[in-house]
Amino acid sequence: MSFSGKYQLESQEGFVDFMKAIGLPDDLIEKGKDIKSVSEIEQNGDHFKVTVTTGAKVLTNAFTIGQEADIETLTGEKVKAVVNKEGNKLKVVLNKITSVTELVDGNTLVNTLTLGNLVYKRTSKRVA
């Protein structure tokens, strides 16, 4: 199953607590909590380009499965990390945050970010 496509955020759980824990300023948390971000994924074999647009903020990361890449985090920091693919899941550890992106079916993308005992879960539906 290919990850390629455009997905719009449908629901999220744990946003505010997670963003506070990673140090995002309150004004940005307040602005971001109701925005339905759009994730666009381009997959070409083991190479991925992921663009997440949240209002005016655009975050783009490109990586190849199993190879070290510079990944930009939610706070704008660049971190060297290796993204691994396990079946229909992409998994990466950025600092102390574990990110698992799962293509549940052809139309549903679930991204779970874990920091200690805090969990931020985003569910997005394919729009293109």
TrEMBL record:
It comes from the Eukaryota. GO terms for molecular function: fatty acid binding. This is Fatty acid-binding protein, liver. The lineage of its organism: Eukaryota, Metazoa, Chordata, Craniata, Vertebrata. Forms a beta-barrel structure that accommodates hydrophobic ligands in its interior. The keyword Cell cycle does not apply. It holds the Pfam family Lipocalin_7. One of its GO terms (biological process) is fatty acid transport. Binds free fatty acids and their coenzyme A derivatives, bilirubin, and some other small molecules in the cytoplasm. Involved in intracellular lipid transport. Belongs to the calycin superfamily. Fatty-acid binding protein (FABP) family. It is found in: Cytoplasm. Its main location: cytoplasm. It comes from Culter alburnus. One of its GO terms (cellular component) is cytoplasm. Keywords: Cytoplasm, Lipid-binding, Transport.
